[in-house]
Structure formats: structure tokens, C-alpha cells
Amino acid sequence: xxxxxxxxxxxxxxxxxxxxxxxxxGMKFPIIEGIPRFVDSENYATxxxxxxxxxxxxxxxxxxxxxxxxxxxxxxxxxxxxxxxxGENILEVGSGAGxxxxxxxxxxxxxxxxxxxSGAVDTNRKNNIGIAPERFHxxxxxxxxxxxxxxxxxxxxxxxxxxxxxxxERSVKCIISKIKVxxxxxxxxYPINGWWTKIQSKYILRPITKRISHQRLFMLIEKNIDxxxxxxxxxxxxxxxxxxxxxxxxxxxxxxxFYSQLSPEELRELSILDTFDMFSPEHDHxxxxxxxxxxxxxxxxxxxxxxxxxxTDGDKSPMATVVRAIRIS
Length: 329
Fold this sequence. Notes:
Layout: E1 15-17, E2 20-22, E3 28-32, E4 35-36, H1 46-54, H2 69-78, E5 89-93, H3 99-107, E6 111-116, H4 121-128, E7 136-140, E8 153-158, H5 168-177, E9 179-189, H6 201-209, H7 214-237, H8 264-279, H9 289-298, E10 301-310, E11 319-327
Parallel strand pairs: 5-6, 5-8, 6-7, 8-9
Antiparallel strand pairs: 1-2, 2-3, 3-4, 9-11, 10-11
Helix pairs in contact: 7-8
């Protein structure tokens, strides 16, 4: 069953009228390039719009290269079975360029309702609208004002997003509210592993880098990425990999599973993307796992798993911090 759309500010039902969405009070929301828009184009997530416009296909799985990291990550973190998603209404919060939208649309027969706060929704649409347009519903909206009635969805997932929202707990609460009683929510997030978590270049430099224009920051990273990659490999080679946390570059070690598949150019592109992703967002709020568990329990969700998950096979697979929960009331 198709899910109704509501005015997220008032709860009134929305209807299509002359290329817009309108409620009974006459409040209107534009539909631009086929995507209903519930937020201003300029907001705290503009860095992600810039990022996914430049790296539209970098994280997408590619059959010719036998890269299926997004597919593996989706099913490993959720533990959802493809056959159990047939006809299910699935909410995706924070779609970016659509790497996981692509997985849901290609690998399942679920109905995907995908939301992003940034203009990256346009990139997602370009990447995925041709796969299963009848099952793909895309919106530009805030996690705090989702345009759906409470209790609408069978399942929801939110990967790589919660730490970039202004209020982590409020984001969790809003996602839970849109799920049916008995429905499942799966999220991952940046963890606080100990006192040393924020003693790294990412958090030391962010007060400066997040205020630099996106274009200038991107140019600085691109200009310096080659020597940074060499320095990171050198530190690993001589057994000083821990020092990489003080280099202004993403953790190259996380790509070790892909060294045999990625060309030097692809590795460079991923390094630029992930380094920009480290330093550009307005918000970056890692959390302790037990704190996030309490958030779910406080807002009527029973946690069925909380811990580290390997995103791919192999001992060197990147680890994700995951919470799975079921709404209980």
C-alpha cells in the first residue's frame, strides 16, 4: 500500500495539484525534478550536496569491477532477507548519492521511501530512477520533519548519517516514530571507543576546515592527497600505523580488502572523497554505543543487537557500529 504524504509541520494530508503538493489550508511544497522538496536548498548539509555531486558514482557497486561493498554492508548490518522484503515499505534516512537505494531497488522487491536533507537527492535520482521507478519514492526533507504519518513503515535504515545531524537523540526518536509497532530499525554511526577517539586530525582540524568553502577544501585535499597516501602506506609498512590518525587523511587501512581490485586512480578518488567527508560536514557527533542503546529504549524501541559488525568477509574487513531495534509501542 502506498504511503500518504503529509505536511510535516501540521500533519495535514497533501495532494498533488499543478505540479506541487498542497494541503487543505493551502500550504504548498514544490516538486522539482520529480522530487518533493520540504526544506530550503541551503542548509547545514550543503557539503554533502557538493560531495555527492562530485563523487556521484564513487561508492556505487559495480558488477564489472566485482565491487559489491554496499550490498554486503546493507545485508550484513540489517540481516534482512531479500524474500522477506517483498512489498515491504522501507524508509531510508540520509540517502546521499544513493548507494544503498541502489541495493534495495536492485536486490529486493521492497518499496523504498528515501529521504535526504541535502540536494544530493538529485544525484540519487540520476543514479537510480531507471531501476524500479514504481518502487522508488524520493524526497528532500529533514529527519526532524519527515512527510509521512507516524507508524507508516515496516522497516527503516539510516547508515552513515546520524552523527551528522544536529541532535542525535532527536533523530533517533523521529525515525522510530515513523515505524509500525513491530517494525525494525537499523542504524550505524561513528562510535566513541575511548578517550582517544577525538585525539586525531579529524577532530583537531574540523573547527577550521568546516568553515572553509567546500571548493577550497576540496582543492586543498586533492592537491595534497598523493603525498598523504604515500605517507600513510609508509607508516603502515614500518609498523607505525597508529600515527595515521594525526595525518589529515582518511584511514587507508580500511581499504585493504580492496587493494587487489582497485586501481591507483580509484584508490585516490576514494581517499579524496572520504577525506573531504571527514573535514567538511557542519556536524560530527560520535556516540558511545551504550548511550545510543538507551536512546532507542527511551523512545519505545527494543534493542535486539548493539555492537560491532564486519561489513565484508575477511579479518581485515572494516567494522561498523550497529544498533538493530524493534518498535514496541
